[in-house]
Design goal:
Helix content: 25-40%
Strand order of the largest sheet: 1-6-5-4-2-3
Radius of gyration: 21 Å
Order of helices and strands: HEEHEEEEH
Distance between the termini: 72 Å
Largest sheet: 6 strands, mixed
Number of strands: 6
Number of helices: 3
Shape: globular
Low-confidence stretches: 1-26
């Protein structure tokens, strides 16, 4: 009976890993979320939303003003490349960023239901815990306040790279997110 229970538990764990588990070496995922029916011909200018307002992430790199300035400058450049002008007052649309950082862990290994089973592979260690960051980018109609476009990027945060590498990777993520942003109609 115990052998059958162990076999059933092992199968359950294998299925869980195959279907839903994100390991700590998860690649970057980017998902655009366009809003259907938006008339992009009326948008020419943009500005950052929530000027001067910043939600602290708890990550010293992401919270660094130099890091934020580099990302802002890069976003201005990328938006210009797709045909939109950055302005300080009276924009057609607002661009807003939201960053969320969460601790993640291997849910299968941390499941107390498997404590009584002798599974060497399921030994829980510090390698089974990582930090995952999600960057959300929104375009908002400045006059109506309605969201007109969005994108989300998610990846494991690299704890071993230096400031410049993290800044470069963050800019690359913003560039990738904006590849799906509607180009300015000519």
């Amino acid at each position: 009976m115990k052998t059958a229970l162990r076999a059933a538990a092992l199968i359950l764990v294998a299925v869980s890993l195959a279907c839903s588990q994100k390991g700590f070496n998860t690649n970057l995922t980017v998902e655009a979320k366009p809003v259907p029916g938006v008339d992009w011909s009326k948008y020419q200018t943009w500005s950052f939303g929530r000027q001067g307002e910043y939600v602290v992430t708890g990550n010293e790199i992401l919270d660094d003003p130099h890091f934020r300035k580099a990302v802002s400058d890069h976003t201005i450049s990328e938006m210009k490349n797709i045909g939109y002008s950055h302005v300080n007052g009276d924009p057609d649309m607002l661009i807003m960023f939201q960053v969320i950082i969460e601790d993640r862990y291997d849910e299968v290994k941390a499941n107390p239901a498997y404590e009584d089973f002798d599974m060497q592979w399921a030994t829980y260690s510090e390698d089974d815990v990582w930090r995952e960051g999600s960057l959300m980018l929104f375009a908002i109609d400045a006059r109506t306040g309605s969201q007109i476009w969005g994108a989300t990027a998610t990846a494991e945060l690299d704890k071993d790279s230096d400031f410049e590498t993290k800044k470069s990777r963050f800019r690359a993520v913003v560039t990738q997110m904006l590849t799906d942003f509607p180009k300015r109609p000519q």
